[in-house]
Every structure is written in C-alpha cells, then in structure tokens.
Design a protein that fits this description.
Two copies of one chain form a homodimer. The first copy, chain A, is of the alpha/beta class. The first copy, chain A, has one domain: Dihydrofolate Reductase, subunit A. Helix content of chain A is about 20%, strand content about 30%. Chain A is built from six helices and eleven strands. In chain A, strands 5-6-4-3-7-1-8-11-10 form a nine-stranded mixed sheet. The two termini of chain A are about 20 Å apart. Chains A, B: InterPro entries: DHFR-like_dom_sf, RibDG_C, Riboflavin_Biosynth_HTPR. Chains A, B: One of its GO terms (molecular function) is 5-amino-6-(5-phosphoribosylamino)uracil reductase activity. Chains A, B: This is Deaminase/reductase.
C-alpha cells in the first residue's frame, strides 16, 4: 500500500496567503484574522479542536473529516508550532494546543535548532532538520504504513511541493485578501503541470481546491 | 459518543429512483444502467470494489471515503442482498460480492424469511425481520460504539427515513431519468422539515445532496 503525503484544510486568502505579516504569540496569523480565514472549519462537526457538541455536517465537514483518516504522522513548520524564532531559549513552550493536541500521532517539527522530543497525551513532537525528502522518510517510518499529513504553514507546504514530494492537496480559499504574508501560491495554476485540479465552491462561502498527482 | 445512522453514496436518477424496474440476477438495477448511475463512483480511488490501482482523488472520492469511516455495521434491504424474493429455496446465494465483501462488519439483511447467519472473510450476514427501530438497535449493539451505515436500496432508506431514524444522508444524483423503479423521493424537498440540506455539483456531472438533522 502506497503511503501518501497529504495536505488538508489549508486556509488561504484569495490572493494566496496562509497567514499575514507580523506573526506573534498574540497574533499567530499575523495581520490575518483566523476567524475569517477559518470560519468554515470552526463551524463543522469534525473540527478537531471543537469543545462543544454540534456543528455542520455538510460539504465543509466532509473535508474536515479527512484530517485524521489513515494518518500516522504529521510534518509541520516551526512557525506552526510556535511564535519563537532562532535557538530555543527554554523548553517551556509546548505548542498552541494545550495538554491534548489534536494530532494523536508523532509530529515532526522542522527547525534548524536542536530540541529534545516530548509527548503530550498521545502526540509526540520531534524536532528535526534536514532536507524535505529526509524528513518525509522519517515521518513515513513513524507512520507505520499509514499516510503522512503535511500540516503547514504555507511556506512549508511550498517547500515540499517544490521538492515534488506531495501527493494530494486540499486548500480552502476564503473570500478575503491579505496583500502580504506567508504565501502558498500566486495562482493555483502553478500546480497544474503535476496535479489534477478540481474547484468546489461551498455554500459557506469558501472555495475548496483539490489536487492529486497526474 | 452518539452513534449515528448514516446513508452514503446512494446512486439516484434525476427523477428520484435508485434502481429501475425488473430487477434480476442479470440486471440487479432492473432497466437502469448501473454504469450510468454509478460512473462517478467507479472512477474514484476509494471505490470499495476497485480491483486495479489508480482512480480520481477529487470531490467524488471524498464522498466515497466516507463509506467505511467509523462504521461498525450495515443494514441493507433484501433486494440489495440478492435477486431472490419469497422464502429462501437454498442458501447457496451469498450476495453479489464474492469471497471478500466490501463491508468488513456485521451486515443485517432485512427479510421476513428466516435464514442462518454466515460469514465471508470479515463480513457476517445476519437475516432479521422486525421494525426498523428494532433492527437499528441490533445493528448499533453489533457496531460496538461505531456508527451504522444504512446501505439501501431506496425503499429501505425510505422506510428508515419515515421512521425518523436516519441522522445523515448522502445521495449522488446522476443526470439520467428512469421513469419508474425503486423510488427514494419525488423531490429532496420532502426532507427539509427535518434536515439541513446542501447541494454540491461535482465536476463529474453528478450532483451530491447532503442532509443532516436540524
């Protein structure tokens, strides 16, 4: 069984940015408002950080359900893990997600700065450097036959796309412009040489883009 | 955790029929052509009866992936199980699906005629009579905390809808008229008093209808 590298639920502005400028502890998405970029996701029954019952079970929820299906590991960029840059000053920061991170698998955080692995509930964070292909190999081994999710942000996804390591991509484009920030693409057409592409407008107002290898 | 009764991948004509007239061993869908009703499904990577690698991974595939996700049992009508009607003359018929049925769970076949349970690979078929609510109770117990899929055909789904036992429904309407046969609805509007409804056209030409309880 082929192990895929899958991208899911990337929240993007209509001009191609996954986060704004000036990311910080207080504003993890910089000048972008996550409540606008992610409104479609937060409303779904399957939103992994959902704390109250309920939520929609329509099209958007079908995409959200893919987040954990047959996933055995995640790869994420350091900027998704936290607002720090440069060497780790201490190890107090353990991510945005509290004691029960929504990953439930090994997570490989890309960083040039060493840090010991640690576990929170059933998620273990490893800190790795190395070329995308090398990190993907580590993650596939940890995934034990299941697929690997490429968790973002936009720059990290772009890096793995440029290395031609990604098998499927799901992006949800919100009807908002950011003007600047962490860019995934100038246009989805950039991927058409290597991927099939479907565009699916959702009743919630976002437009889902699906890509899979030709 | 609530156990849902879920309907997935119901293939329907634009005039509301799930199968044509004159169902038989040679024509399980009667005068309807399953290659037309189901073209969208058979093309997907996740089609459960797929024998060759490949297949699409776009919108239609996202719906197909739901077939097995968190499902612990299926309920199906006798007409889905086979072309026989009336008392079982023998027990040679074991369904349409060969030695490896795509269900991988207990399956409850609705029939007024007794027949012993049997297993094929990791699927066990039980033959049950009784009101929909009673059969659902049996299936939920067998599902061991997971959801129950209501597998069809159209008349069986209608029966459980009329008993108000269904939580989510996914129907894929193909651009073809049948004129007669096994009917799910005259119009999807019949469900709007009890369900949210989303209509999602697919690039493949079918239109997906999603319903979840209000």
């Amino acid at each position: 069984m082929q192990q895929l590298l899958r991208v899911h639920n990337v929240m993007l502005s209509s001009d191609g940015f996954g986060a704004g400028e000036g990311q910080s502890l207080e504003r993890p998405f910089g000048h972008a408002d996550p409540a606008v970029l992610g409104a479609w996701a937060f409303a779904t029954a399957s939103w992994p950080n959902r704390t109250e019952p309920g939520g929609t079970r329509g099209l958007d929820d079908h995409f959200m359900r893919e987040f954990g299906r047959n996933i055995g590991a995640e790869i994420m960029g350091r900027n998704k893990f936290g607002p720090q840059r440069g060497p780790w000053r201490d190890h107090e920061w353990q991510g945005w997600w509290g004691d029960e991170p929504p990953f439930h698998t090994p997570v490989f955080v890309l960083t040039h700065h060493e840090r010991p692995s640690f576990s929170l509930s059933d998620t273990t964070f490893h800190f790795v450097s190395g070329a995308p292909a090398t990190v993907l190999e580590q993650a596939k081994e940890a995934a034990d036959g299941r697929d690997v999710r490429l968790g973002g942000g936009a720059a990290t996804i772009r890096q793995f796309l440029d290395a031609d390591l990604v098998d499927t991509v799901h992006v949800a484009v919100a009807p908002v412009e950011l003007g600047a920030g962490s860019r995934l693409w100038t246009s989805p057409d950039e991927l058409l040489d290597r991927f099939h592409h479907e565009v699916v407008p959702s009743p919630s107002g976002v437009t889902h883009h699906l890509f899979w290898r030709r």
